[in-house]
Amino acid sequence: MKTSSPLVLASKSASRRAMLDAAGIVYQAVPADLDERALEASLTGALPHDTALALADAKALAVSETQAGALVLGSDSLVVVDGRRFDKPASRADAADHLRFFSGRTMELHSAAALARDGRIVWHHADVARLAVRTLSDDFIAWYLEREWPAVSGCVGVFRIEAMGPHLFEAITGDQFTVLGMPLLAVLGALRDQGVAVA
Predict the structure, then answer these.
(1) Rounded to the nearest 5 degrees, what angle is found at the Cα of 136, between the Cα atoms of 37 and 79?
(2) Taking a C-beta distance cutoff of 8 angstroms, is the pair 132, 104 a contact?
(3) pLDDT single digits (tens) 147-186
């Protein structure tokens, strides 16, 4: 597959880059310079779906303002467990605390993507996957983090599904790309509509 129009990915996420690479999409990565925590604070009380969309929109718009004429793809993921929102762990001890809370509960992983051109959102979409976390012992958590830290320090949910992450779960309901951090099938459809991916 080849592309016919420039695409900019407003992210430094390795998993999002890997998805686009595997799909044959040509792009330039330009991470958004955005205070995500401040934006999230302004969205207090918003539904997780709406928060993920707002963050994806904001990333796409921030980079779009510096990339005249280019289509900019922003994406964001967030995790909610029992109504509590989780961000990326601040430390290995924080990661262990997150995993202890997740143990035996269902994780909701909300992934959103947005496309912007010349400072205007032209498309956005959000999806959710549900991951049933098995009961995790302290010994397992220590074993897991010994192998996955610091690689999971940048991951909401403290896992990489393409690595040791499957050890955490009993069942997963939802799209595999959503679990990886971006609703890729919807993104590819939007890229075709925008003339970036071959229709």
Answers:
(1) 25
(2) no
(3) 999 999 999 999 999 999 999 999 999 999 999 999 999 9
CA dist 105 and 70 (Å) reads 42
Cα–Cα distance, 61 to 32 (Å, whole number): 9
By the 8 A CB rule, do 146 and 167 touch? no
Domains of the chain: residue spans and CATH: 7-193 (3.90.950.10)
Active site residues: 76
User: Cβ(103)–Cβ(135) under 8 Å?
Assistant: yes
* Number of other residues whose CB lies within 10 A of the CB of residue 33: 10
* Prediction pTM value: 0.91
CA distance 12 to 29: 7
Tokens of 88: 């990326």
- Spatial neighbors of 125 by CB under 8 A, at least 6 apart, are 112, 113, 114, 183, 186, 187, 190
Q: Which two tokens stand for residue 49?
A: 């779906």
CB 44 within 8 A of CB 54: no
Beta bridge partners of 28: 8
